[in-house]
Amino acid sequence: MTRIPPRRVLALAAPALVVLAAEPLYVLVDTAVVGHLGALPLAGLALGGVLFTQVAAQLTFLSYGTTARAARLFGAGRRDEAVGEGVQATWLASAVGVVVLLLGQVLARPAMALLVGPGAVADAAVSWLRIAVLGAPFVLITLAGNGWMRGVQDTRRPLVYVVAGNGLSAVLCPLLVHAAGLGLEGSAIANVVAQTVTAALFLNALRSEGVALRPDWRLMKAQLGIGRDLVLRSLAFQACFLSAAAVVARTSVGAVGAHQVVYQLWTFLALVLDSLAIAAQSIVGASLGAGRREEARRFAWQVTGYGLVFGVVLGVVFAGLAGVLPRVFTTDQAVLGEIPHAWWFFVLLQPVAGVVFALDGVLLGAGDARYLRTTTLLAAGVAFLPLIWASYAFDWGLAGVWTGLSAFMVARLVGLVTRTRSEHWSTVGATTSPPASG
Length: 438
What we know:
Elements: H1 6-35, H2 39-57, H3 61-75, H4 79-116, H5 120-132, H6 136-151, H7 156-179, H8 184-208, H9 217-249, H10 253-289, H11 293-320, H12 326-329, H13 333-365, H14 369-393, H15 397-421
Helix pairs in contact: 1-7, 1-10, 2-5, 3-4, 3-6, 3-9, 3-10, 4-5, 4-6, 4-9, 5-8, 6-8, 7-8, 9-14, 9-15, 10-11, 10-13, 11-13, 13-15, 14-15
């Protein structure tokens, strides 16, 4: 049996990488624009932005779950039904987005009081958040749009839509913040305008497909099933990373700074590797939908090889940059002194991460969200969290925290490889009925 051509994988992964990177790059622009207003608006943006981003991160099932379901239907030659999954995901995104909007207006003040207490910083964050959350339905519609388009292997239009929206925001932000004198609120308005435009482009693409646009509760209920598992999986990630930040914050200022530098690099490379996972999702889902089980299983190991090679290359590159790159981020000697305690864990984990992300994509494409949920919760509860809090109790410092992260990744690697070697995930057919749990 022939291998999936590498060009096909690249054709899906490269546009996905640009889409994934667009938002973090815009956040950097937003931060630079608001940063010129002073420390108080910047702090407000940081707190409001973190809260809004965390909420959106829990709802990415609208993208990943929709891709899994749409890809199978597309592989089975049922493109209209694949697009129909996008219609229902868009209805679901709209409904959930309105709920998030309303809760954001009501809970913005209490949430900031809990995070930072009363004061000027909380006031600035609430002011930004109450405007920014108006864009929640549009952010979620965009997630759903990305999901169904990846499922039908259309990666060009999402690239155009997301870059257009973020480009518009990058232009509007300095104009509204500085030229129009709106300050921090101008940043939030620019976000909402851009999110509205991007969502409108995805909605127009859906309308142009000529499929029925009526809501179908039966399909939305099925999407919520896979969504529940992916939300729980995402919460496990958040519990781990928030616990790590909390423990580091109780060590030293230098350790906090070092963790921030290395963790942000880790997050950036995760985006790079996730583009490969998105390609794997689309291809595996289509292969299983078409009944080509052996092709899906063969491709699972093919994309694992790509992930391993990619991870090794990244590890070698960042090992070579160990003496140079940290100084780009800081000149503080206390921070620089702590960075090696995390840096070499970060470097050595890249090959592991390459395989983990690739196999994540394979199992997501197969609709095996239940297994991914269970193994992630187990890896967090058994490997990560005990080591993190032992690090705090025994004063192991930054090295202890990154030992916990390493254990988490290795535990996930073992679980993913074990599952992929089995036959339980590779059920064929046009629907993502839950695979066996064995």
